Amino acid sequence: MPETPENAEASAQITRDEVAHLANLARIDLSDAELDHLAPQLSVILDSVRSISAVAGDDVPPTSHPMPLTNVFRDDVAVPGLNAEQALAMAPQSEQQRFMVPRILGDEQ
Amino acid sequence: MSALPSFDEVLASYDPAMGLEVHVELNTNSKMFCGCPTAFGAEPNTQVCPTCLGLPGAMPVVNAKGVEAAIRIGLALNCEIAEWCRFARKNYFYPDMPKNFQTSQYDEPIAFEGYLDVDVDGDTFRVEIERAHMEEDTGKATHVGGATGRIQGADYSLIDYNRAGIPLIEIVTKPILGAGERAPEVAKAYVAALRELIVALGVSDARMDQGSIRADVNLSLAPKAPAGSTAGEVVLGTRSETKNVNSLRSVERAVRYEMQRHASVLDAGGKVLQETRHWHEDTGVTTSGREKSDAEDYRYFPEPDLVPVAPSREWVEELRGTLPELPWVRRARLQAEWGFSDLEMRDTVGAGAFDLVEQTIAEGSAPQAARKWWLTELARRANETGVDVAELGVSPAQVAAVQRLVEGGTINDKLARQVFDGLLAGEGTPEEIVAARGLEIVSDDGALSAAVDKAIAENPDIADKIRDGKVAAAGALIGAVMKEMRGQADAGRVRELVLEKLA
Which residue, of B320, B339, B356, is where some domain finishes? Predict the structure, then answer.
């Protein structure tokens, strides 16, 4: 396999701090032991995925969608969905025909 | 915090930089990614479905009308339209989106690199547009408990997802530099012009009071550049982002307030926090919201459930062909056609009478007459009753009819006022009112001659002056005749009779 400058440095590690940051963003509470354990594991996974860049040259753009489709649209026609009773039947709690959620600690995004 | 420095003190030491983000809620029939209806004010959670509730397995499909509106807005803002772009997931934890992400666009907006020229007191100020992208609105949270009904201190929150998924176009400016003391006015003028554009495009209700147009105001201050210095690298200060400023007046006030607040922090040797601020319409101040640091990391990634949007150039050009004449271009054209001065034009627009004047002229009235009636008699009456002149209940066709009666010599301007009284009282058409109230001008020489004789007899001193050649004194006699005839005399004919009799 030809070595390119990209995959030569492809063994970059995901750091423990990065894992902690991602866990925080995803609201996953990880202990120190879990962080120690996960960072090297994730690095291995990233390394494996990164091997793709060894075969994909500059002429292959990153692919987000495997099917070569564009412009799949629908007409702007309103159709009935669920009624409030059906929608709220899935909520653990509701009040005033609204979904009831616990106190929000963060701020609006 | 100590008292804020005055606006002039701020300007003496700092240059403001602004960035405006405006969210436009589209008026499509259905949501952006599902077929749910979009009516404003529906009962809570009655316009929802598995897709906009984020239920497992539900798949979104893009509303063609939403893309079309985005492209038309982009074109109207002189933007490039992407040949290929994707939606992206903006991941965050807040229950206003049940999916835990908002479908938006990230580094591939559908429209980019445009500008909007706005008029600030007769000067044109170019606001450069960074991007316009497609996304979806969020649900509406009501916070229960606590003293203020706000999120802080609330016991729990209630969510209505009717609004979640309604198409939004977010329009983001590049940093607006060099506005100086006019920064508040420029911000207001930009949002006002953008709103007008949206109305002309017909893509949104454009009701700021209902939140269908919402502005976020980013502001920072930099130390004032020395006079005469050339524009080198622009160093921006730390910015604050004031969210959901929901009236044109508030946009102006929020910019002004934040300039003063930033200056007060900087003057005291402090650091401006990069944070979200909440605008309070009632007190005219902003308060601290969320500090922006980690929270800015939304882990955007391409939305796998929606395929890319690649508008063909043919479609883009077809949509370019549907753009209406821009409101300010139309105004400039009509101003030239009508022969209005800048001041007359500004007054007409300012009084909310522009469309009314245009329609009155289209009904056959002379431009200056149309302007005169709407801006004097009718504006005054609207003002007295506390309504907009457009809601007064007098139509452009009726005003044109009144003006026709004036030009035809049936009534004069003074009598026309009584016709407007009649119109507002619902007494019928202008012609019917003239007949019913007996307002027609008398130009019959018999009646006029008698009245002139009477006026001469009652004003011998004035009559003598006119006999001595002081023709200017005739006005007093004409006035006396008009009074005698309750304003219904043909003034021109009266003048002729006065001068004949006293020659």
Answer: B320
B243 and B282 together in one domain: yes
Same domain, B269 and B354: no
B336 shares a domain with B418 = yes
Task: Assess whether B336 and B476 both reside in one domain.
Answer: no
A21, closest residue in chain B (CA to CA): B294
| Structural domain range at position B352 | 327-437
- Single out the residue of A26, A102, A16, A108 nearest to residue B292, CA to CA: A108
Question: In this model, does residue A5 exceed pLDDT 50?
Answer: no
Instruction: Give residue A12's pLDDT.
Output: 64
**pLDDT of B270-329, one tens digit each?**
999 998 999 998 899 999 887 665 446 888 999 999 999 999 999 999 999 999 998 888
Does a structural domain hold residue A22? Answer: yes
CA distances from B409 to B299, B365, B404, B438 (A): 75, 15, 9, 14
Question: Of the candidates B277, B296, B320, which is a domain's last residue?
Answer: B320
Whether B362 and B255 map to the same domain: the answer is: no
Using one digit for the tens of pLDDT, what is the confidence trace for B327-349?
888 999 999 999 999 999 989 98
Whether residue A99 is predicted with pLDDT greater than 70 in this model: the reply is yes
Q: How far apart are the first and last CA of chain B?
A: 81
Specify the higher pLDDT residue, B202 or A4.
B202
Look at chain A and report how many structural domains it folds into. Answer: 1
What is the rounded CA–CA span in Å between residue A106 and residue B93? 8
Most confident of A54-68, B19-33, B265-279: B19-33
> Considering the domain boundaries, does residue A12 fall inside one?
yes
Chain A closest-CA separation from residue B64 CA (Å): 5
ipTM: 0.83
Do B37 and A104 make contact, defined as CB atoms within 8 angstroms? no
- Asked if the Cβ–Cβ distance from B50 to A82 is below 8 Å, we say yes
Q: Quick one: B423 and B356 in the same domain?
A: yes
**pLDDT (tens digit per residue) in B237-252:** 899 999 989 899 999 9
**CA closest to A89 among chain B residues:** B45
- The whole-model pTM stands at 0.80
Between residues B110 and A13, the one the model is more confident about: B110
For residues A82 and A85, give the distance between their C-alpha atoms in angstroms, rounded to a whole number: 8
Chain A contact present for B50, CB below 8 A: yes
Please tell me whether residues B340 and B422 are part of one structural domain: yes
Instruction: Quote the number of domains for chain B.
Output: 3
Note whether residue B188 is domain-resident.
yes
Q: Which domain covers residue A21, as residue numbers? A: 1-58
CATH number at residue A16: 1.10.20.60
Distance, CA of B401 to CA of B360 (rounded, Å): 9
| Pairing assessment for the beta strands B88-91 and B101-104 based on DSSP bridges | antiparallel
Q: Chain A contacts of B137, Cβ < 8 Å?
A: none
Interface test with B, best of A18, A24, A63, A70 (most B CBs within 10 A): A70
- What is the pLDDT confidence band of residue B165, given thresholds at 50, 70 and 90? very high
Q: Nearest chain A Cα to B27, which residue? A: A76
Using CB atoms within 10 A of its CB, is residue B276 exposed (0-12), middle (13-18) or buried (19+)?
buried
CA-to-CA distance for B253 and B276, rounded, in angstroms? 17
* DSSP annotation of A34: H
Note whether B149 and B297 are same-domain residues: yes
